[in-house]
Amino acid sequence: MANSNQTSFNEVAKYDLEQQQTTQQVLDLETKEFDYSKRSQWLRAAVLGANDGLVSTASLMMGVGAVKQDSKVMILTGFAGLVAGACSMAIGEFVSVYSQLDIEVAQMKRDKVQRETGGGGEILEDTAQGEKEDLPNPLQAAAASALAFSLGAIVPLLAASFIKEYRVRLAVVASAVSLALVVFGWLGAVLGNAPTVKSVARVLVGGWLAMAITFGLTKLIGSSGL
């Protein structure tokens, strides 16, 4: 009778464990499907990189355009800003993500020691395997940041490349950048499941302020003869 009771207890415990595993798998699937925070790493790199490339390059070009009417000077300045900014974004993202990778790898080693000393079982082993698959990739993040920055920086460069008239060139650059800011703000809001209007307004106003401040200060310094 004791053996029969023990067998029944083991069967019940096994069934409960299987139910818990099934429930956890369903929850994990729902989380992967609906948790937009999982996109945070690549989304942050892409959106910030594109916005930074767009705004910084456009601001550089507008600043130079405030004191130099030559289209060649303006375009060369934008190109230099594109190359320098893409390299800076890539290096910064690589260092940041690599630091995060070191922290997560160290935590995984501590978890492994805990499993080996305390006996973890298959569930902990499966969890460790999933954690390895989710580790951040520094090279991927760096490449994404550099590419996104370059794509953003291309917008003002293309807008200024084929226009000789000074005032028209500035107006076209500002208009093209404004349109791109709206697109990037909307795209970031949609991918991140955030409020669209607030995201677009925040990105657009920030870009306008950056261009206006750069243009105004450069114009002021240039007119003072410094």
TrEMBL record:
Membrane topology classification: Multi-pass membrane protein
Catalyzed reactions: Fe(2+)(in) = Fe(2+)(out)
Keyword ATP-binding: no
Coiled-coil regions listed: none
Keywords: Ion transport, Iron, Iron transport, Membrane, Transmembrane, Transmembrane helix, Transport, Vacuole
Keyword Ion transport attributed: yes
Pfam families: VIT1
Residue spans crossing the bilayer: 73-91, 141-163, 170-191, 203-222
GO molecular function: iron ion sequestering activity; iron ion transmembrane transporter activity; manganese ion transmembrane transporter activity
GO CC annotation terms, alphabetical: vacuolar membrane
Protein localization: Vacuole membrane
InterPro entries from the UniProt entry: Ccc1_fam (IPR008217)
Chief place of localization: membrane
GO biological-process terms attached to the record: intracellular manganese ion homeostasis
Main function: Vacuolar Fe(2+) uptake transporter.
Family per similarity comment: Belongs to the CCC1 family.
Protein's name in the database: Vacuolar iron transporter
Phylogenetic classification of the source organism: Eukaryota, Viridiplantae, Streptophyta, Embryophyta, Tracheophyta
